[in-house]
Each structure stands twice: as structure tokens, then as C-alpha cells.
């Protein structure tokens, strides 16, 4: 068996450590999901990102149990995140939704539980986050955080509960580098986690990315992911393909210079600029 390397970790504001590189499972279904997560663990990923809305918590749990049974990993070595969907916000409803997620995953605890979207029009983020803090107190959740939050909603939760989320998982990729929101997170002691870190493939053919990839003898996806690591972002690239899952993990032995970093960040002004997903200020539309 080949020696496995582990990604660097980020220390969260509650003292827990999260592997900076994780595996995202959005859109992975059924056996394809089990096989992909199993392969990711085999390659060395120790952080898995799912959500109730992805409909694959059960398959993620199966893959984890399988990997543990095979002796590839222990539960303690893994960092498992899941998320509360929008229609389950509120104190009692979110507690029920969490228990359902835990049961689908077949785990005793999750490492991180996130409010998936702030849903500002509902006005339920504070009571939801308080309920998550209670579950954390019972030991069912190690760390609590949020996703798709912006300054106002972060401050509402922090002032309303007295607790600062450990991380904010936001859309972030070359072409949408979110300098302002990364700074908002940093000022509050919140780690930034990037979803769609390779922009769902948008930008893989961009000439700037391709040139840098050629110069480093790497693939465009590896260059994008390396850019994130050097910015300090936690990342969770998704792939259904074993070769790509391995490729996306193989980013710890090269370095981008300042000029490369600036060129990638300046893609915010290029043809690949902009959001892919919904705007958290207005999502979900009602
Ligand atoms: N919090 C949120 O609201 C939110 C929203 C979206 C996503 N997420 C999380 O973030 C994770 C990642 O985001 P994402 O899945 O939207 O996008 P992504 O990871 O940026 O990109 C995934 C896409 O890129 C392709 N791909 C992956 N590796 C590649 C490589 N090395 N070369 C070429 N193509 C490659 C994949 O295709 P194949 O699968 O065919 O390889 C897939 O189409 C999700 O899985 C989910 O866990 C969270």
C-alpha cells in the first residue's frame, strides 16, 4: 500500500481542526456516491461535505462505515459536515431535521453542522443557530457554522446568540474571488470555505489558468485548487471520477508565485467573472 499524505488543517474558532481540502458530494447519487466517497477516503481525503438536500447522506454514511470496517480510516480521523435545508429552519424543526440527518448518516455525531442558506425573509437564523448550539452541547455536533451568509446575517447570528460560527461556506472560485466577504469572515474569526471551488468547470479552459497550469506542469483544476489553498480557503471539490478525485487531492507539492496568484484573482474582471449559484440576499425566491 502506498504512503498516504494528509492535507493541512485549519484551526477553527472553537479549537477544532478541519482538513483544508475536503470532498464535496453535491449531485452524487446512489452507488456512484458510495464509490466516489470510498475512493476519496482511499486517496487520503479526510473531510466530506454533504447536505440534507443532496439526498445522499445515507450513501455517505455507508461509504464511511465501509472504509472504517476495511481499516482504511477511523471515525476520529474523519471530518463530516452536513447542512440544514431552508424549509427546516426554526428551533424545533431544525432539531428534528438534524436528528434525521444523523440517522441517515448512521453516525453518533457530525463534525460540523451548517445552516445552508440564511433565508433573510424567514428571520429564523438566530433561533436555528441557538438550537444547533444546544445540540453541540449534547455532543451530537462538534462545530457549528453557516453557509451563504453575508455581513448582516453573520452579525445578526453573532449578536443574537453570542456565538460566532466556525466557518462560512460560500460560493468562491476564480472569477468570483469574494475578497470583501473573505475579509468580513476574517475580521470575525470565521474561516472561509469555498463551494464550487473550480467553478463547476467554468474557467478550466481560460487562457490564464491554462498558461499557469502548463508552466507548473499541472492541470487547470489543480492550479485553481492551489490558488484557494494559498488564499487560506477551505475547499471541497466534487468529482464522480476516480482519476479527477485523485488529481484534485494532489496539490500539496507545488507553489504559485505572487504574480500567478494575482493573475488568477484578476479573473474577477474577465469573461469567466461572476456567480454561478443564487444570490443569498434574495434566495430562495418566494
Ligand atoms: N453551501 C452551498 O450552498 C453549496 C452549493 C454548491 C456546492 N456546495 C458544496 O461544494 C461542493 C463543490 O461544489 P460543486 O460540486 O458545485 O462544484 P466544483 O467542485 O467546483 O466542480 C465540480 C464539477 O467539476 C468537475 N470536475 C471536478 N474535478 C475536475 C477536474 N480535475 N478536471 C475537470 N473537471 C473536474 C466535476 O465533474 P465530474 O464529477 O464529472 O468529474 C463537476 O462537474 C459540492 O459538491 C457541495 O459539497 C455547497
UniProtKB/TrEMBL annotation:
Positions of the record's site feature: Lowers pKa of active site Tyr: 83
Single annotated GO MF: oxidoreductase activity, acting on the CH-OH group of donors, NAD or NADP as acceptor
SUPFAM superfamilies cross-referenced by the UniProt entry: NAD(P)-linked oxidoreductase (SSF51430)
A Pfam family of this chain: Aldo_ket_red
Residue ranges annotated for the NADP-dependent oxidoreductase domain, each copy included: 22-268
Catalytic residue list: 54 (proton donor)
Keyword field: NADP, Oxidoreductase
Binding site for substrate: 116
InterPro entries reported for this sequence: AKR, Aldo/ket_reductase_CS, NAD(P)_OxRdtase_dom_sf, NADP_OxRdtase_dom
Keyword NADP assigned: yes
PANTHER family: 2,5-DIKETO-D-GLUCONIC ACID REDUCTASE, NADP-DEPENDENT OXIDOREDUCTASE DOMAIN-CONTAINING PROTEIN
Family: Belongs to the aldo/keto reductase family.
Name of this protein: Aldo/keto reductase
Amino acid at each position: 500500500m502506498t504512503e498516504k499524505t494528509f492535507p493541512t488543517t485549519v484551526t477553527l474558532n472553537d479549537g477544532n481542526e478541519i482538513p483544508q481540502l475536503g470532498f464535496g458530494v453535491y449531485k452524487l447519487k446512489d452507488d456512484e456516491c458510495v464509490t466516489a466517497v470510498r475512493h476519496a477516503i482511499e486517496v487520503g481525503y479526510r473531510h466530506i461535505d454533504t447536505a440534507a438536500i443532496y439526498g445522499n447522506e445515507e450513501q455517505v454514511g455507508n461509504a464511511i462505515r465501509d472504509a472504517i470496517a476495511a481499516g482504511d480510516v477511523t471515525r476520529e480521523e474523519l471530518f463530516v459536515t452536513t447542512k440544514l435545508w431552508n424549509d427546516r429552519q426554526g428551533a424545533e424543526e431544525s432539531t428534528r431535521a438534524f436528528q434525521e440527518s444523523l440517522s441517515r448518516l448512521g453516525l453518533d455525531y457530525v463534525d460540523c453542522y451548517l445552516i445552508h442558506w440564511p433565508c433573510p425573509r424567514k428571520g429564523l437564523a438566530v433561533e436555528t443557530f441557538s438550537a444547533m448550539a444546544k445540540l453541540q452541547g449534547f455532543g451530537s455536533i462538534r462545530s457549528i457554522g453557516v453557509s451563504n451568509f453575508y455581513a448582516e446575517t453573520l452579525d445578526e447570528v453573532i449578536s443574537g446568540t453570542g456565538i460566532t460560527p466556525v466557518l462560512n461556506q460560500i460560493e468562491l472560485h476564480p472569477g468570483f474571488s469574494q475578497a470583501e466577504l473573505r475579509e468580513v469572515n476574517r475580521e470575525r474569526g470565521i474561516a472561509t470555505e469555498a463551494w464550487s471551488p473550480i467553478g463547476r468547470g467554468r474557467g478550466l479552459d481560460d487562457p490564464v489558468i491554462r498558461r499557469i497550469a502548463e508552466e507548473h506542469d499541472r492541470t487547470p483544476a489543480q492550479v485553481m485548487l492551489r490558488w484557494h489553498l494559498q488564499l487560506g480557503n477551505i475547499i471541497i471539490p466534487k468529482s464522480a471520477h476516480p482519476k479527477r478525485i485523485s488529481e484534485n487531492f494532489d496539490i500539496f507539492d507545488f507553489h504559485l508565485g505572487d504574480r500567478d496568484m494575482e493573475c488568477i484573482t484578476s479573473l474577477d474582471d474577465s469573461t469567466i467573472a461572476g456567480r454561478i449559484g443564487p444570490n443569498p440576499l434574495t434566495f430562495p425566491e418566494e
